[in-house]
């Protein structure tokens, strides 16, 4: 069920934005639709998700119609601020969105189209567990307007999947990819590396399996042991070894080499795409500071520099909306220093990097030393951009500290 929400200041019951929030109509507008349901809780997961026994009064069958009420509230809040922007990206995340019937996901997407419009060239992504996708599901999602499916493969090695408490059948990854392809959807594969006991050979096997599926996009994330998870408890009890940072670094380098050799280009530290057209435009909107509205329990939003977040539990979320009240639990506006740190942190992670001229003086002075240390690309720095080398991607946090301290 994830960690605690930020504190922030109270959000108004009607969900209205503060009078001094200015919306730039030239900024892209993205929509995130959170589906907080899972069949089982994976031992490493710290996301705001719930199994059937954890719902305590909330009903999965009612969820889509409940979320539609929040979309209506959002439309009223934004309509007061000028012309509404059509959604340039829509992302169904979770949880496991494909645990809901395709008709429910279609209803949620239709509500977004009715409230804001959806751009003709919009990217519409659905995250999916391989066991929940077949030809019928993929076709129904495509007909509803979905353009892209992100399939949670995580690993091709049964022992690694067992350590992660992933219950899907590895053979179903290929079936899900084939179904998505047949429906005309772009395909992204999600991988996790560095699980306790996972070897370099295990990881190479997963990379080879992912490449053999010929996806358009691959995400590969290092396993992070989050406090409060079952995995953290097992490691604390000595049942499993903690992930090894050096091994994870070797795994990252192996992934970058294998994916690069297969024709993928890195465009963000943990993401590779066949070409620019197959990058995740929705995630790029996060990394470049665009506007987005997140719908669903625990979802976060960012519009005009204001951030807010919803109550976490589906029952509390439904109760608020049943009373025509915003589910927002709190909000904040980062000060200049926090906004600068976040901008450098996020933009330095993408292939285009950030302009040296946009750094504070202390950051500009640090660039030469970072080039000398092999963390920033020297040729890019000469052109006035901060772009991480492969080694710099492994030490991205240290680079950010040097550019902002």
UniProtKB/TrEMBL annotation:
Superkingdom of the source species: Bacteria
Locations listed in the record: Cytoplasm
Pfam families, per database record: Radical_SAM
Gene encoding the protein: hemW
Protein name: Heme chaperone HemW
Described function: Probably acts as a heme chaperone, transferring heme to an unknown acceptor. Binds one molecule of heme per monomer, possibly covalently. Binds 1 [4Fe-4S] cluster. The cluster is coordinated with 3 cysteines and an exchangeable S-adenosyl-L-methionine.
Sequence similarity: Belongs to the anaerobic coproporphyrinogen-III oxidase family. HemW subfamily.
Occurrences of domain Radical SAM core (ranges): 23-265
The species this protein was found in: Microbacterium awajiense
Keyword terms, alphabetized: 4Fe-4S, Chaperone, Cytoplasm, Heme, Iron, Iron-sulfur, Metal-binding, S-adenosyl-L-methionine
């Amino acid at each position: 069920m994830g960690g605690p929400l930020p504190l922030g200041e109270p959000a108004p019951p009607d969900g209205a934005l503060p009078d001094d929030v200015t919306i730039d109509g030239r900024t892209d507008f993205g929509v995130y639709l959170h589906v907080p349901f899972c069949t089982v809780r994976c031992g490493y997961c710290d996301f705001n998700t719930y199994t059937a026994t954890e719902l305590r009064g909330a009903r999965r069958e009612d969820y889509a119609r409940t979320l539609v009420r929040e979309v209506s509230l959002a439309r009223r809040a934004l309509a007061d601020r000028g012309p509404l922007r059509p959604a340039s990206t829509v992302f169904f995340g979770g949880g496991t969105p494909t645990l809901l019937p395709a008709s429910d996901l279609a209803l949620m997407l239709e509500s977004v189209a009715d409230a804001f419009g959806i751009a003709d060239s919009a990217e519409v992504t659905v995250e999916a567990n391989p066991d929940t996708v077949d030809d019928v599901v993929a076709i129904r999602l495509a007909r509803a307007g979905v353009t892209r499916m992100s399939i949670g493969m995580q690993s091709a090695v049964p022992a690694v999947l067992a350590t992660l408490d992933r219950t899907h059948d590895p053979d179903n990854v290929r079936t899900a990819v084939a179904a998505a392809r047949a429906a005309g959807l772009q395909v992204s594969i999600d991988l996790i590396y560095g699980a306790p006991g996972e070897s370099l050979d295990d990881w190479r096997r997963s990379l080879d399996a992912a490449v053999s599926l010929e996806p358009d996009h691959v995400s590969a994330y290092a396993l992070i042991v989050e406090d409060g998870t079952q995995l953290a408890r097992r490691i604390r009890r000595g049942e499993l070894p903690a992930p090894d940072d050096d091994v994870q670094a070797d795994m990252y380098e192996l992934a970058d080499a294998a994916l690069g050799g297969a024709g993928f280009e890195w465009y963000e530290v943990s993401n590779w795409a066949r070409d620019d057209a197959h990058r995740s435009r929705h995630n790029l909107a996060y990394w470049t500071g665009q506007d987005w509205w997140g719908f669903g329990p625990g979802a976060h939003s960012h519009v005009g520099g204001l951030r807010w977040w919803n109550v976490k539990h589906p029952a509390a979320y439904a109760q608020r909306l049943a009373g025509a009240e915003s589910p927002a639990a709190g909000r904040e506006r980062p000060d200049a220093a926090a906004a600068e740190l976040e901008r450098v942190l996020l933009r330095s992670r993408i292939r285009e990097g950030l302009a040296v001229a946009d750094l504070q003086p202390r950051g500009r002075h640090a660039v030469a030393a970072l080039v000398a240390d092999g963390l920033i690309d020297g040729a890019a720095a000469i052109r006035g951009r901060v772009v991480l080398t492969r080694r710099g991607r492994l030490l991205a946090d240290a680079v950010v500290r040097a550019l902002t301290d």
